[in-house]
Amino acid sequence: MRLKDKVAIITGGGRNIGEETAKLFAKEGAKVAVVDLDQARAKAVAEAITAAKGVAVAFVADVSDPAQVDKLVNDVTAKLGRVDILVNNVAITDNKKIFDITFEEWNKVMAVTLASPFLLGRAAAKQMIAQKSPGVIINIGSTSGFYGRSEAIAYTAAKGGVANLTRSMAIQLAPYDIRVVLAVPNKIGSPVGQDYFDPNRPVVNLRKNRAGTPMHVAKVLLFLASDDADFVAGSPVFIDAGVTAVMPGDTGVGA
User: Fold this and answer.
1) Does the residue 161 lie in any domain?
2) Contacts made by residues 229-234, CB under 8 angstroms, sequence distance 24+
3) Is 176 a catalytic residue?
4) What are phi and psi of 70, to 5 degrees?
5) CA distance 48 to 25
6) Contacts of 101 (CB under 8 A, 6+ apart)
């Protein structure tokens, strides 16, 4: 078991990447705090883990709210004993163009997608330091944070911010033996903020245009959270089947 006796906080743990990661981490021995704004989702995932002989507790929190973030880390520590791993997975998108998005919509995307990794990363790091033990923080980025898009202007800006936030966190937390890593998926599972998975979602990649699944990401996150990734810090790890390696317009991709 690669995460035996570790305690992991996973935000957005009620579905998609967060759900599969929570279940896989628990299978590998971690005690998992399943965090979601939707209580029913968090509870369902925690109960599924418990039914499979794992250890999980559901927590409800708005991770863009500093007070709720601090309470969450305190509650997880009180319930599960410590914090060893944090996966900042939750995000929302806007799917808006620059002249269509309102300032309120912009701020909401920034609060959930960019501010929450900062807030929760800081709170979790304080707990890891207080424990005097190593820790791992994994921020979930997106290929949208490395390229411009014709829509989702707030989301692309926020995910670009997450990439550099990760670098600075990695530098500043390294003296405390806390590794910070950026995982970068592309079009994995259901679209951000949506419940359904469309198997016909258009993809272009180097894996014969196969659609990515949440488990593809979860397996990489397991590696990053484990001691096997001890020398991985600060840098982005792309989970995109080679999308970012392709020259735009290359029609031979996936053939």
Assistant:
1) yes
2) 229/179, 229/181, 230/179, 232/179, 232/181, 233/170, 233/174, 233/179, 233/180, 233/181, 234/166, 234/167, 234/170, 234/171, 234/180, 234/181, 234/182
3) no
4) -60, -40
5) 13
6) 94, 153, 154
Q: Please state whether 193 falls in left (phi above 0), alpha (psi between -120 and 50) or beta.
A: left
Q: State the pLDDT at residue 248.
A: 73
Q: Which of 147, 155, 176, 196 is catalytic?
A: 155
Q: What is the CATH number of the domain that holds 73?
A: 3.40.50.720
Q: Give the separation between CA 119 and CA 133, rounded to whole angstroms.
A: 20
Please report which residue ranges of the chain form alpha helices under DSSP H: 16-27, 39-51, 66-80, 103-109, 116-131, 153-173, 214-225
Task: Look up the pTM and report it.
Answer: 0.94
Q: Residue 219's closest CA among 228, 211, 210, 231? A: 228
Torsion, CA 165, CA 168, CA 171, CA 176, rounded to 10: -60
- Within a domain: 79: yes
Strand 85-88 to 55-60 pairing: unpaired
**What is the total residue count of the chain?**
255
Q: Six-digit token pair at 80?
A: 């599960």
Residue 254 within a domain: no
Over residues 62-119, the pLDDT tens digits come to: 999 999 999 999 999 999 999 999 999 999 999 999 999 999 999 999 999 999 999 9
Is residue 252 included in any domain, yes or no?
no
- Number of domains forming the structure of the chain: 1
Q: Which domain holds residue 161?
A: 7-245
